[in-house]
Specification:
single chain; 34% helix; alpha/beta; 18 strands; 22% strand; globular
């Protein structure tokens, strides 16, 4: 893609539909069994909904029985390979786009998929855009920072879209903070909503303890109060566009934004790393597949917070709170609770969120049905 600094005006658009997918692709660069567990868990959730999962290694492309990938040679362990979403794009007109210096790896997956491979000098990172449908035309929702590097006309040509709509950066990439669904609905990670829900959860715990003696739940209360203060401090120091402004921008462009309690920050380990968000929980970074009946399958990241705090299913019933519960409740008008799957991969996915940062969406590239 041609690099050029430009100034442009955001383009309003009138609709969005989540796209039905043929499959998703991951790339094996980790030499441990947890990656295989992640692929298998995604496969188990996806295959029942007519969605294939493929794993590319240096030797081949696997479709099932992912334990066998451990016998293959792993791909080079660098972020340009590992974060598949950012470095590989399956377009809506049958092409596969990828960075020029990864041509051998990209040609293998494009040949497997039966699609034409096209090298780009600079591949637009997939975490910072979404392709949406406006009537019968595909358009691009783009993180505004990309306009410092890419010419709009080049993007339109490469990605086969008719228009570009820009959005202020809610995080380093859009997919860490928003998730378009269909019918102009966009989920927004709203940190204030999370803080409100955490405060309500603490009050529910206090109410339960006022009627019951339970040292385990008392400990959960103290841990929740500490977590609340930590997240509140991280939100105060957050340098990207606040969720309320993102919400208003989306409304102005004809969307129906939905505020969700869907991320909790992990404090940065270094003082000079404030521009990178790391997470103890992030439910926005997800793959969404439209099933044949029009309902949505939502594959997102398992957080270990409920387990760490000791909020078991039994305790959730007692205190009427868990982080997964409050997220599912916030989106129940758009996604059935049973169609939201939290992928752990034996701890591999939460580790990616905490240290990467990235999750299920970053790890995969979607293959749209065409």
């Amino acid at each position: 893609m041609e690099i050029k600094r430009v100034q442009t005006t955001p383009i309003n658009f009138q609709g969005y539909d989540a796209r039905p997918l043929k499959g998703i692709v991951l790339r094996y660069v980790q030499g441990d069994k947890l990656f295989a567990e992640t692929a298998q868990e995604l496969h188990d959730a996806a295959s029942k909904n007519k969605l294939d999962v493929f794993v590319q290694t240096s030797d081949s492309v696997h479709k099932r029985d992912f334990k066998n990938i451990l016998r293959d040679t792993a791909l080079p362990p660098n972020p340009f390979v590992f974060w598949t979403q950012d470095n590989l794009t399956f377009t809506n007109n049958g092409k596969v786009l990828g960075n020029k210096f990864l041509e051998r790896i990209n040609e293998k997956i494009s040949n497997f998929a039966g699609r034409r491979y096209e090298e780009l000098q600079h591949h637009l990172q997939g975490g910072n855009f979404f392709i949406f449908k406006d009537k019968n035309t595909d358009k691009l929702l783009l993180g505004r920072d990309e306009l410092d590097f890419y010419h709009p006309e080049t993007l339109k040509k490469d990605l086969n879209v008719s228009e570009i709509c820009t959005l202020s950066q809610p995080d380093f990439h859009l997919d860490l903070a928003i998730r378009p669904l269909k019918n102009k609905v966009v989920l927004v990670a709203d940190d204030e909503t999370m803080l409100e829900q955490m405060a309500q959860g603490i009050n529910k715990i206090k109410l339960y303890l006022s009627k019951n003696h339970d040292p385990q739940i008392r400990l959960i209360q103290h841990q929740m109060e500490e977590l609340y203060q930590m997240h509140k401090a991280c939100v105060k120091d957050f340098t990207y566009t606040p969720a309320q402004k993102i919400y208003e921008e989306l409304q102005q462009k004809g969307f129906t934004p939905v505020k969700t309690p869907s991320r909790i920050f992990r404090p940065s380990l270094t003082s000079d790393n404030n521009d990178d968000s790391h997470f103890l929980l992030n439910y926005m970074n997800s793959v969404v597949h439209e099933k044949p009946d029009g309902s949505l399958l939502y594959l997102t990241n398992k957080s270990m917070l409920d387990d760490i705090l000791g909020i078991t299913p039994e305790i959730e019933k007692k205190i009427d709170f868990s982080f997964e519960k409050i997220f599912k409740d916030s989106v129940k008008d758009y996604i059935k609770p049973e169609d939201i799957r939290f992928i752990a991969g034996g701890g591999f996915v939460p580790k990616c969120l905490s240290t990467g940062p990235g999750g299920v969406h970053c790890l995969t590239a979607e293959i749209p049905k065409i």
